[in-house]
UniProtKB/TrEMBL annotation:
<keyword id="KW-0067">ATP-binding</keyword>
<dbReference type="InterPro" id="IPR003714">
    <property type="entry name" value="PhoH"/>
</dbReference>
<protein>
    <recommendedName>
        <fullName>PhoH-like protein</fullName>
    </recommendedName>
</protein>
<dbReference type="InterPro" id="IPR051451">
    <property type="entry name" value="PhoH2-like"/>
</dbReference>
<dbReference type="InterPro" id="IPR027417">
    <property type="entry name" value="P-loop_NTPase"/>
</dbReference>
<keyword id="KW-0963">Cytoplasm</keyword>
<dbReference type="Pfam" id="PF02562">
    <property type="entry name" value="PhoH"/>
</dbReference>
<feature type="domain" description="PhoH-like protein">
    <location>
        <begin position="133"/>
        <end position="337"/>
    </location>
</feature>
<comment type="similarity">
    <text>Belongs to the PhoH family.</text>
</comment>
<dbReference type="GO" id="GO:0005524">
    <property type="term" value="F:ATP binding"/>
</dbReference>
<feature type="region of interest" description="Disordered">
    <location>
        <begin position="357"/>
        <end position="376"/>
    </location>
</feature>
<dbReference type="GO" id="GO:0005829">
    <property type="term" value="C:cytosol"/>
</dbReference>
<keyword id="KW-0547">Nucleotide-binding</keyword>
């Protein structure tokens, strides 16, 4: 079972639908969803959503018609009631609920904050080509989307799987559809991720295409492939390596720089100074996954430190809690973070021991007993 635990049991939003049995059993409750369609959507395919709640929250969930019967530790039952009511409200608002939505909803409610679950997850950004609604799935993602709407330059910094590039792409496509911009420019530094790819055959476009594949994948997930190819052929959507940005001024554009941790300081400055009128730039990256040669400073890390107080620029930070991929991805990130912290602690201890050893050596020598050999 996950270590996600509810923090602070707020008052139930809709106490009329909940029949708490505190006098008989303080660890049980009943929630009446009231109609079959909403109940089916809430339970999920073969009750997968209810099974997820049981596994993640340590409660038992039974269904009888439109009623859900909950039992378990009192805090977990109260948290599950809040979760069910929030999910019910989202379904009634027309938002389909999938298994991954339940997973993220547990995180959002568990972390608390001013935003309610519906404020976070009922803020659609775009409908993809498959008619699936793209919306934030965490508080950090909601603030990130709001920052992109409110600022012209936004940095999205955090580990893999937090939706930094995907949401930026969704915002770009939405801006294009709403005619707020005339084109989308997607850029990425062509840096090998820890391996030597050797000589790549083909023309220039074919050589750099592997580096830009993640951007194409996200674009094709949001619009039909034929439509995306047509926009690329027209130049309305441009996918290019970062080197192609030099000397340009990008007006009426939504510009995304992905994998920005692999830019040098000079490249980052070059990119940021390309922005023209009526344009937005979103820079995404993970400062823990730098693939630059040893001795080269990351332009993303440098920019974060010198631009954090510049008005009009927003820096959105993500953590492993905001990962929206498979739940094990979050655990992998935490394991690597623990390993890195242990390595740093061991290194610091070794350096401290070396310093102490070098500092006490002269004192030992000075305090050593004098030789019995008489001085001639």
């Amino acid at each position: 079972m996950s270590d996600t635990r509810p923090e602070g049991l707020d008052e139930l939003r809709n106490p009329a639908t909940v029949e708490a049995q505190a006098a008989v059993s303080p660890t049980s409750a009943k929630v009446d969803v009231r109609d079959n369609a909403t109940t089916l959507a809430l339970c999920g395919n073969q009750n997968e959503n209810l099974k997820l709640m049981e596994r993640r929250l340590g409660v038992r969930v039974g269904q009888r018609g439109t009623e859900l019967h909950l039992s378990g530790p009192s805090d977990a039952v109260a948290f599950t009631v809040r979760l069910v009511e929030n999910l019910e409200g989202m379904i009634r608002a027309g938002r389909p609920i999938y298994r991954e939505d339940v997973e993220q909803a547990i995180k959002v409610l568990g972390r608390g904050g001013a935003e309610s679950l519906q404020d976070v997850m009922n803020s659609p950004v775009l409908k993809s080509s498959g008619n699936k609604q793209i919306a934030p799935k965490s508080i950090a993602q909601k603030r990130y989307v709001d920052a992109i709407r409110a600022h012209d330059i936004v940095f999205g910094i955090g580990p893999a799987g937090t939706g930094k590039t995907y949401l930026a792409m969704a915002m770009a496509v939405a801006a294009l559809q709403e005619r707020k911009v005339k084109r989308i420019v997607l850029a990425r530094p062509a840096v090998e991720a820890g391996e030597k790819l050797g000589f790549l055959p083909g023309d220039l476009a074919e050589k750099v295409n592997p580096y830009l594949r993640p951007l194409y994948d996200a674009l094709h997930d949001m619009m039909a492939v034929e439509r995306a190819l047509h926009l690329i052929e027209q130049g309305v959507v441009e996918v290019a390596p970062l080197a192609f940005m030099r000397g340009r001024t990008l007006n009426d554009s939504f510009v995304i720089l992905d994998e920005a941790q692999n830019t040098t300081i000079e490249q980052m400055k070059m990119f940021l100074t390309r922005l023209g009128y009526n344009s937005k730039a979103v820079i995404t990256g993970d400062v823990t996954q730098v693939d630059l040669p040893v001795g080269k400073a990351s332009g993303l890390h440098h920019a974060r430190s010198i631009l954090k107080n510049v008005e009009g620029i927003c820096i959105s930070e993500f953590t492993e809690v905001d990962v929206v991929r498979h739940p094990l991805v979050q655990e992998v990130i935490r394991a690597y973070d623990r390993y890195d912290a242990a390595q740093q602690a061991a290194k610091a201890l070794k350096e401290a021991e070396a310093t102490v050893a070098s500092g006490t050596a002269p004192e030992v020598a000075a305090g050593a007993p004098e030789s019995d050999t008489p001085t001639p």
